[in-house]
Amino acid sequence: MRGSAYSRPGCAPGATSPAARPLGRYLRSPAGANLFLLHPNSEAVACRPERRAPGLAPFAKRGKTVIRLPIYMDHHATTPCDPRVVEAMLPHFTETFGNPASKNHVFGWRAEEAVERARAQVAALVGATPREIVFTSGATEGANLMLKGAARYHRSRGDHIVTVVTEHPAVLDVAAALEREGFRVTRLPVDGEGLLDLADVERALTERTTVVSVMWVNNEIGVVQPIAEIGRLCRARGILFAVDAAQAVGKLPVDARAASVDLLAVSGHKLYGPKGVGAVYVRSGQPRVRLTPEIDGGGHERGLRSGTLNVPGIVGLGAACEIAGRELAAESRRLLELRERLRRGLLARVPDLRVNGSLERRVPGNLNISFARIDGEALLMALREVALSSGSACASAAPEPSPVIRALGVGEDLAHSSLRFGLGRGNTEEEVDYVVDLVAENVPRLRAMASGAARRAAD
Fold first, then answer.
1. 312 in the same domain as 350
2. How far is CA 327 from the centre of its chain?
3. Same domain? 306 vs 339
4. Are residues 306 and 251 in the same domain?
């Protein structure tokens, strides 16, 4: 199949690779570099969303390599929907569009079959059985269901919740809301590498503790907490263990049962699935985990999450989980190589850097760095050819320095200068080298500007 030029907003001329493999309405190159849509005349056209910022060139040359701009390195905030996921979702918008709760006709039956297939795909990735998977709108709703549902159901037994200062706002804000209801919340500190001390966890548990909530992987610094060890502590005391795994699932092996996890939240858009869909693992067995539902009205999802199921989104989440599980080992190795290439390049060319968080206990695609004597927001503006962030996307409106970085014992000035690099499936060695060059060019310039401004202010 030959490629043809096709000009319309969001599409660029392109040709298919001889090795491109058909995916129905889509073709995708093996490296995932381009998404090819099938034109009505059956010719393939390269079509990627227009992402050029005003005044920004669409391409940059590095030696003989042409790099498309801007470069996306913010995969902890969100990921692009994998074309294979989109392909799986499409029939459920216009063909298999039934309500899975409709039990009297084929449209409902087929929708229900699709949902149950996705349920099995999600379960397989997190070490669960299909019946233990409850579909939600994402990890924020999942955190609300896990913490509020468990705390309220077991209030007669206890009123104490334990969590961590570096948790995502989806957990910390829920904990604060429960405090306003009269629950007591202990927020544990972390060490200079962002890791929990198991002795601190054990000391915090009391006879009134009903829920412990710890995120598997931190969304800003990428550190991996000792989940299995914490799970064993909780299980031995009959305390429910809830885990925000939005940044872990699809990035490292997750087995909720083996880790003694009782509740676990997943988000589709963090693993190349669609936005607006997620899941919660609710452990079955003896004793069964019991929750007070957050949403009433119809008794869907075993009464834990009422509302008509988002069939296309659920199918997309299932497909994303299956792909992530299949490609996890190879992609983890590739991302680790890219991250180390980025880290070594920056350390070699830019002095006075601090890597935030443990390098040994860290997901492969994360690098969080503080740049001394520079403002992180100014550096972000200078690096507008690269999509990065200075903290959690869910707290980016806050002008304060990242509380996660401050929790490591980092001073306010250095915390203000931290940037998060989130590598993902689409990133290449050429892009990493280009970003290293860009940072190395801009940091000395911004430091000189800041030093000059300080001298003028002193005069």
1. no
2. 17
3. no
4. yes
Our answer to whether residue 394 is catalytic in this structure is yes
Q: Spell out the residues 6+ positions from residue 413 whose beta carbon is closer than 8 angstroms to its own.
A: none
Within a domain: residue 64?
A: no
Place of tokens 């060059």: 437
**What residues contact residue 445 under an 8 Å CB cut-off, 6+ apart?**
382
Q: Which helix (H) or strand (E) covers residue 175, if one does?
A: helix 169-180
Per-residue confidence band for 11, with pLDDT thresholds at 50, 70 and 90: very low
| CATH code of the domain in which 263 resides | 3.40.640.10
Give the pairing type, strands 26-28 and 35-38.
Answer: antiparallel
Any domain includes 27: no
User: Strand 160-164 vs strand 209-213: parallel, antiparallel, or unpaired?
Assistant: parallel
The answer to whether residue 344 scores a pLDDT higher than 90 is yes
Q: What is the pLDDT of residues 264-322, one digit of tens each?
A: 999 999 999 999 999 999 999 888 899 988 888 877 878 688 898 999 999 999 999 99
Q: Which of 47, 81, 234, 394 is catalytic?
A: 394
Q: Is residue 316 domain-resident?
A: yes
User: For residue 300, is it within any domain?
Assistant: yes
Same domain, 257 and 404: no
Spell 378-387 as b/e; 16+ CB within 10 A means b.
bbeebbebbb
Tell me how far apart the alpha carbons of residues 427 and 338 are, in angstroms, rounded to a whole number: 8
Q: How many CB atoms lie within 10 A of CB 244?
A: 29
Domain holding 297, by residue range, is 87-322
Domain stop point among 290, 306, 322: 322
Query: What is the chain's Cα-based Rg?
Result: 23
Q: Are residues 315 and 336 in the same domain?
A: no
How many domains, in total, are found in the chain?
A: 2
CB-based contact 424:71 (threshold 8 Å): no
Checking if the pLDDT of 37 tops 60, the result is no
- Edge-first strand listing for the sheet containing 240-244: 133-136, 278-282, 263-267, 240-244, 209-213, 160-164, 184-188
Q: How far apart are CA 37 and CA 33, in angstroms?
A: 13
pLDDT tens digits, one per residue of 160-214: 999 999 999 999 999 999 999 999 999 999 999 999 999 999 999 999 999 999 9
